[in-house]
Specification:
A two-stranded antiparallel ribbon has the order 1-2. Strands 3-4 form a two-stranded antiparallel ribbon. Helix content is 8%, strand content 46%. The two termini are 21 Å apart. It is mainly beta. The model has no long low-confidence stretch (mean pLDDT 92).
Length: 76
């Protein structure tokens, strides 16, 4: 199974972690500079659920936003 919401298609997004060096101007320094950055992933809050897909129950990942909306039927 993919780490992706079955209902809305929400998946991972990429971004950066920025490491800064130097003292901030407000604290009496000459300003902070970006020393380096590395890539990272932002993962959605997915929960494994058993829901009805068509007429058959299936174990899938659903994001919490879709769980709050209630756009699906739970399998018994």
């Amino acid at each position: 199974m993919l780490k992706k919401c079955v209902l809305c298609g929400k998946g991972e997004q990429t971004g950066k972690v920025i490491a800064r060096k130097g003292q901030y101007k407000a604290k009496g320094g000459t300003g902070s500079k970006i020393a380096r950055w590395s890539k990272r992933k932002f993962l959605p809050n997915l929960q494994k659920m058993r829901i009805m897909m068509g007429m058959h129950p299936k174990n899938v990942y659903v994001c919490t936003k879709c769980i709050k909306k209630g756009d699906f039927r739970k399998a018994i």
